[in-house]
Predict the 3D structure of the following.
Amino acid sequence: MVISRKQESPKCDKFINEVKLKQTEKFKYLGTIISNNGKTSREISARTAQAKINFQKMKTILTNKHISIETRKRALQCYIEHVLMYGCAAWTTSKQIQNKLETTEMWFLRRMLRIPWTAKKTNERVLKEAYKRRSIRKRQATFLGHVMRRGKLEHLVTTGKFEGKRSRGRQWEKIMDGLATWLGPGKVSDTLAAVKDRDLWRDMIANAYKQGT
């Protein structure tokens, strides 16, 4: 596979024992779909579909009003959300992808609370009724803190830069850009400096999570 931003991926001929390897647009590695454009849209679509299938399998439990909402939320988190969010710590989430994930989350909660589409309840109201906050950024920030303090290969991959000029046009959003905005400092350099202090980092995550963003 050749990962590139170009519409057509550059051709790359590789041979092992005179046998040409097939160049592919995507493949699955450790349960995660890796695409040749470097984006996570295919992986998230697959995760969303699988999570909805799992929800339907457990529908009789998750929508049972005789079971407390707290118990059903735990079941949702253990058996459904973990499928949806597997590997999310490494996702670069654009606004479009974030909206897709939030739509899927609402799909779960509205069915779990048995809210018909005719009720016309806002997403914020549904979240309050379910006593739930969104957590993808929290997961990413927690993972980032671990990786940065560890200071090994993952640190290099996250903070490293390529030589050369940027491509023309609008630049893709990086994980660090989204986390810096979510956590508060706004600047990536300030965020990376805060990571070194474990207690400060935990407080920043807790404060941002409390805001429900």
